[in-house]
């Protein structure tokens, strides 16, 4: 069975990062997989895909050239002759549905986002019957897909996109003589809520909060928000905060931390937060997407409402007031992640979907 995996772009991070692991499960179950990206953006995602042995093809058109991208996808898939068109995110899903219909091939559509623009939500709901199978990338997104897109119940399944890696580098517990290292990992985009984090840290400063140990906050990632966030950091006098740029090696970065921060306005599964738990870190996060399913407050991390600097500041104060317990919480977070996202579960769910696709393709 040949699967054409259609994605929005080969940008680093986001829904593109799990593609190699997903493709490996598909290939382990007898499928041939090629990736078709509708745009390049920064191109960093292609590195891991090609390193995994995937054939990656990228449309040369700009993101605004929708008709050109659609024609490109049609020509590529017509020549490659897939048995199944597999899509991810709204733009790729809509174009994949159209081309899949032209070619008479079944379409499988991932849903990753907890937030959909109203127009995209309406389009996907209207086009729901054009996909033979919908996949939610987490329990939370699967529930949202059932509500907002409303496919037939027998055409909706859940396959969490995170698979636990037992050999991932582990964080070293904090020692009283050390500076506490708090970190975040992700593109500098409003959805990640780094401005809310800076507001929360500024509140702690104005309130005169003094933790028992010094701390620093490292935000790894790049993006269009850097200049604005740097200005906000400077205005608030947050000398303990540093923007460290794009991270080439996320597992090694996470292993240097004592507490992971995810102050997002919206998330789906949030791979980075689960990678942090995999590394044995407690996570302080907004209660969005899959994060409330994964984080047990006071046991594996801390939760705060999204877009609420005061609540986030209170959660930070709670975490920083007793740094000695962070290591134990991190071990509990790792155990919970293993229980929910073990590699065997990931492979088994993918294998069941492949068997279903073989029947659909036949």
- Rg of Cα set: 21 Å
**What strand order characterises the main sheet?**
3-2-1-4-5-6-7
User: Helicity level, as a percent range?
Assistant: 40-55%
CATH 4th-level superfamily of the largest domain: Glycogen Phosphorylase B
CATH level-two architecture of the largest domain:
3-Layer(aba) Sandwich
Could you state the order of secondary-structure elements as H and E? Answer: EHEHEHEHEHEHEEHEHEHEHEHEHHH
Beta-strand fraction estimate: 15-25%
Integer count of domains: 2
Would you tell me the overall average pLDDT? 94
Please give the largest β-sheet: 7 strands, parallel
With helices defined by DSSP (H or I, 4 residues minimum), what is the helix count? 14
Q: How many DSSP-defined strands?
A: 13
The CATH topology assignment of the largest domain is Rossmann fold
Shape: globular
Going by helix content, strand content and strand pairing, the class is alpha/beta
Query: How far is the N terminus from the C terminus?
Result: 10 Å
Low-pLDDT regions: none
Quick structural gist:
With 362 residues, the chain is α/β, with parallel strands linked by helices. It has helices spanning 19-28, 45-51, 66-80, 90-103, 118-126, 139-148, 194-206, 226-236, 250-254, 271-278, 291-294, 309-321, 326-341, 343-361; strands at residues 2-7, 32-37, 55-58, 84-88, 107-111, 133-136, 156-158, 180-185, 215-220, 241-245, 259-262, 283-286, 301-304.
């Amino acid at each position: 069975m040949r699967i054409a995996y259609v994605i929005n772009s080969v940008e680093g991070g986001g829904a593109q990062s799990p593609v190699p692991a997903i493709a490996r499960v598909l290939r382990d179950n007898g499928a041939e997989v090629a990736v078709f990206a509708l745009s390049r953006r920064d191109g960093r995602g292609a590195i891991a895909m090609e390193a995994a042995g995937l054939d990656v093809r990228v449309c040369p058109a700009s993101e605004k050239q929708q008709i050109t991208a659609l024609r490109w996808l049609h020509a590529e898939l017509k020549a490659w002759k897939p048995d199944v068109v597999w899509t991810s995110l709204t733009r790729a899903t809509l174009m994949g549905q159209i081309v899949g219909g032209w070619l008479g091939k079944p379409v499988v559509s991932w849903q990753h986002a907890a937030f959909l623009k109203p127009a995209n939500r309406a389009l996907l709901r209207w086009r729901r019957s054009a996909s033979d199978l919908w996949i939610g990338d987490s329990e939370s997104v699967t529930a949202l897909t059932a509500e907002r897109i409303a496919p037939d119940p027998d055409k909706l399944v859940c396959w969490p996109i995170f698979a636990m890696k037992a050999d991932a580098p582990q964080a070293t517990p904090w020692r009283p003589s050390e500076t506490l290292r708090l970190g975040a990992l992700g593109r500098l985009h409003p959805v990640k809520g780094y401005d809310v984090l800076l507001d929360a840290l500024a509140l702690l400063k104005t309130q005169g909060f003094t933790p028992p140990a010094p701390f620093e906050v490292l935000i790894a990632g790049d993006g269009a928000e850097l200049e604005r966030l740097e200005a906000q950091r400077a205005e608030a006098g947050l000398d303990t905060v540093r923007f460290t740029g794009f991270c080439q090696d996320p597992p090694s970065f996470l292993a240097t931390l004592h507490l992971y921060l995810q102050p997002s306005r919206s998330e789906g599964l949030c791979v980075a937060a689960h990678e942090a738990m995999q590394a044995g870190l407690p996570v302080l996060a907004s209660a969005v997407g899959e994060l409330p399913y994964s984080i047990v407050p006071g046991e594996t991390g801390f939760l705060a409402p999204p877009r609420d600097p005061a609540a986030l500041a209170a959660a930070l104060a709670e975490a920083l007031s007793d740094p000695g317990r962070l290591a134990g919480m991190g071990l509990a977070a790792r155990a919970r992640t293993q229980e929910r996202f073990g590699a065997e579960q990931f492979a088994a769910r993918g294998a069941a979907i492949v068997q279903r696709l073989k029947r659909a393709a036949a």
